[in-house]
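in:
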């Protein structure tokens, strides 16, 4: 007997029955066969030829028949959401993206238990391109205690944490998800109440700690940077009293707790300039862009040398950032690939339209970076704007030499290290240099030009001008040096 459970669906293949939350879902026989094939091989990519053989084993049909039935299936499962359980993989076929559990004859008890374990986890239907091996490795290594996934905004921390939680859920009595930034979405639990309380008292902390007694729990805390000091205190209090509890957090900086295991999530793999690409899957950033384009603008499917070349240029200009790549794919239908590449010289202006149902901080690239910027103190905001004039890698010593005079020494050190910790400056692995991601740099340049950082005194203005003239000592390009004076003038104004 083959019975599959995914999300809130239960599919009895021999009985040809599909139920959602106990209610029958009516789909055509061809769509049912396609769903059975895809769900039975969750995560695998089935070619169009394979799927047509499954649904029309004795009949030759056009590929359009397959597309019609896939559309029908998507509508039955999730209303045709473009980020569907059934995703198109550009040039390769289709894949089923959500976790699937095979149930035995005692499935009624098992189903109820699994439902209670997963009911607090948000749906996450989109396939995580380029992350499968990393997620499996991290999920295998995670244990009791506090683990924090850290990375730049839009890098995919929440999606990775949710996929890890679904892989791990069977080992726990309960899985609890709390979105720190979205008060309306927080479950009514002691820990959610502690995070919302105006003042954190010992009684509130005691209720949180007692709320986890006697159960094995996986607690997922998403977006901790929004209230990181409070989250750190609550998480540490709970972990200290419940050593078997597993806390999986996401944040743009570590919680800073003793014993915290920090996992750094990087951007997707991006080809070097003019690097040859024979297969879209060679670089995960290119694969993601091609897949998302096929979902929102199928007539612009990425194929042929020129299309792949343009896709590679898009992902280079977006730093391999998954959110930026998805926003770029959403603009292909109205801009075309050639114009999209040109427009990405100013990505903040181009990547301004996303999924309306996403959290506001994920709907545009600017809103996503605003979220990080608004959490910085004044010194960090000032230094971010000043460092944006470095077009390439720079050392901390160079940054201190040219801009340290604008701060007290301890303030400069704290601000610089804070920008690194908060994922706004990327530290290089070997040579001790740092770099500002392209998307962050454009944002910081705008803020610097607007005078969003602290106004310079006349003496500091003269100091900047003097250092600007020392071309032989500046580790910047000529164009960057030339760009500094207008910003300095704006600051003085």
């Amino acid at each position: 007997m083959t019975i599959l459970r995914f999300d809130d669906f239960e599919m009895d293949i021999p009985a040809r029955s599909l139920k959602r939350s106990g209610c029958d879902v009516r789909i055509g026989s061809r769509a049912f066969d396609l769903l059975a094939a895809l769900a039975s091989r969750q995560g695998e990519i089935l070619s169009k030829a394979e799927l047509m053989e499954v649904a029309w084993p004795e009949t030759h049909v056009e590929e359009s028949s397959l597309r019609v039935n896939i559309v029908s299936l998507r509508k039955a499962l999730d209303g045709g959401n473009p980020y569907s359980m059934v995703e198109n993989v550009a040039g390769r076929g289709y894949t089923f993206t959500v976790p699937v559990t095979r149930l035995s004859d005692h499935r009624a008890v098992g189903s109820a238990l699994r439902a209670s374990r997963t009911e607090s986890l948000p749906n996450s239907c989109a396939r995580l391109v380029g992350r499968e091996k990393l997620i499996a490795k991290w999920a295998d290594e995670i244990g009791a205690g506090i683990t924090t996934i850290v990375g730049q905004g839009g890098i995919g921390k929440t999606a990775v944490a949710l996929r890890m939680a679904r892989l791990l859920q069977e080992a726990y009595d309960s899985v609890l998800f709390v979105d720190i930034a979205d008060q309306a979405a927080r479950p009514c639990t002691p820990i959610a109440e502690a995070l919302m309380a105006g003042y954190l008292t010992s009684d509130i902390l005691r209720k949180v700690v007692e709320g986890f007694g006697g159960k094995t729990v996986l607690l997922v805390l998403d977006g901790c940077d929004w209230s990181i000091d409070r989250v750190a205190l609550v998480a540490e209090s709970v972990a200290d009293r419940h050593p078997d509890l597993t806390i999986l957090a996401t944040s743009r900086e570590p919680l800073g707790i003793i014993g915290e295991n920090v996992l750094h999530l990087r951007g997707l793999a991006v080809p070097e300039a003019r690097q040859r690409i024979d297969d879209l899957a060679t670089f995960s950033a290119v694969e993601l862009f091609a897949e998302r384009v096929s979902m929102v603008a199928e007539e612009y499917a990425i194929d042929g040398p020129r299309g792949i070349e343009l896709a590679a240029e898009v992902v280079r200009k977006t730093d391999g950032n998954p959110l930026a790549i998805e926003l770029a794919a959403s603009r292909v239908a109205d801009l075309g690939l050639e114009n999209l590449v040109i427009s990405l010289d100013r990505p903040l202006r181009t990547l301004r339209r996303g999924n309306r149902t996403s959290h506001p901080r994920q709907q545009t690239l600017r809103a996503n970076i605003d979220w990080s910027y608004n959490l910085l103190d004044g010194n960090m905001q000032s230094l971010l704007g000043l460092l944006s004039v470095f077009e390439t890698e720079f050392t901390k010593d160079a940054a201190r030499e040219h801009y340290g005079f604008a701060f007290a020494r301890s303030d400069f050190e704290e601000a610089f290290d804070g920008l690194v910790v908060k994922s706004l400056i990327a530290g290089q692995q070997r040579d001790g240099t740092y770099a500002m991601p392209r998307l962050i740099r454009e944002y910081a340049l705008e803020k610097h030009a607007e005078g969003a950082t602290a106004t310079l005194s006349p003496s500091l203005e003269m100091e900047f001008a003097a250092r600007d003239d020392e071309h032989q000592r500046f580790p910047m390009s000529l164009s960057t040096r030339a760009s500094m004076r207008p910003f300095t003038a704006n600051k003085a104004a």
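note: The chain has four domains: 3-102, 120-264, 280-368, 376-492.
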